[in-house]
Specification:
The complex is a heterodimer of chains A (187) and B (137).
Chain A lengths: L1 H11 L3 H22 L3 H18 L9 H19 L10 H10 L3 H6 L3 H9 L4 H12 L4 H8 L3 H28 L1
Helix pairs in contact in A: 1-2, 2-3, 2-4, 2-8, 3-4, 4-9, 5-10, 8-10
Chain B lengths: L2 H11 L9 H13 L11 H43 L7 H4 L4 H32 L1
Classes of the chains: A mainly alpha (187), B mainly alpha (137).
């Protein structure tokens, strides 16, 4: 936190090299979040740039109530959501659990059965088919190692909802992998 | 939230797997392993350079727009000062010797046209010919 304070004060004093360091420290987090939520390859890097420009513009308002990384993640989340909504993709509603579970688990992807290179890539391709909220929470929890309170702060969701989404997302993936493993054993 | 599934997830997350995993356990293990894997998307190597360049460009535009604002304020201020000065000093604009020339305005206009014509001929006809002669020589 002390390092963040020094870095932020340097950026606010106009030191662009300090901002370059800030970018380096947080670009992975932003790339992971945007990369997981946004489908279009062309839009991903542009959105990441918009996020950091916003960080630069709003840095003077950051009051260290939370970690700098959490604050930046919140900005990335909001930009990703706006992008999804602007492209008329569904975000607001989590699909009906029972219906979605049946559909997700039963959906066949013949090309995956034939061409999947390894289980990791197979699972990650399944993650891309989950609702955006599930994808985001999986990314923040497993990839970025954020705690529940931090995820709540980024997404503005109650802790119960975050835990529920995390559980459901992992369960869905497990069911799909289990079905795939069952098929492999039959072959 | 299914309690059994929840406990299984917590068990796998804590690394407490049984030696002989059932299908559910194995599937969760595979899922958890995959979720830790770095995604394929990564930013280009010069991402931070381009970003810094964009910020610098924005700063330059902001500074030059500041200059234009100052210029506009200056012009407005000088105009107001001129109007105030004329109003309070009773200044009357006089064209001096030009008012004497009013009767010779036709001659004045003719002179301007002749000079302009000579200038045009010099630029378009004479100077190119002289330059060509020098280059051939």
């Amino acid at each position: 936190m002390k390092d963040d304070r020094v870095l932020v004060s340097k950026v606010l004093a106009g030191d662009l090299q300090a901002f370059r360091l800030l970018i380096k420290q947080h670009e992975r987090l932003v790339a992971h979040m945007i990369g997981r939520l946004v489908k279009s390859e062309e839009d991903k890097e542009e959105l990441c740039q918009d996020v950091f420009l916003r960080v630069y513009d709003k840095l003077k308002e950051f009051s260290f109530n939370a970690k700098l990384s959490t604050w930046i993640a919140t900005i990335a989340y909001r930009y990703a959501i706006n992008h999804i909504r602007k492209n008329k993709m569904e975000y607001a509603d989590i699909p009906d659990e029972e219906r979605f579970t049946k559909q997700f688990v039963s959906e066949e992807s013949p090309e995956l059965l034939v061409e999947e290179q390894d289980m990791d890539n197979f699972v990650l391709s399944l993650v891309d088919k989950l609702p955006p909220q599930y994808r985001l929470i999986l990314t923040l929890y497993h990839l970025e190692g954020m705690t529940y309170p931090e995820i709540c702060e980024v997404t503005d969701m109650p802790e119960g909802t975050v835990k529920n989404y995390l559980f459901r997302a992992r369960n869905l993936l497990k069911e799909k992998v289990k079905k795939h493993l069952g098929k492999e054993e039959l072959l | 939230m299914n309690l059994e599934e929840k406990e299984l997830q917590m068990k796998i997350e804590a690394g407490k797997t049984s030696p002989e995993m059932d299908l559910d356990e194995k599937a969760y293990q595979l899922v958890f392993n995959a979720l830790k894997k770095q995604p394929q998307f990564s930013l280009s190597d010069n991402f931070s350079d381009r970003l810094i360049a964009t910020i610098r460009q924005r700063q330059e535009v902001k500074e030059s727009s500041g200059d234009w604002i100052l210029l506009t304020v200056g012009v407005v201020f000088l105009t107001v000062a001129l109007v105030v000065a004329i109003t309070f000093t009773g200044f009357k604009l006089s064209f001096g010797f030009l008012s004497d020339m009013a009767d010779y305005s036709g001659l004045f206009i003719c002179g301007v046209v002749v000079i302009a014509t000579y200038n045009w001929i010099d630029k378009k006809v004479i100077s190119p010919k002289i330059n060509n002669r020098h280059s051939e020589g």
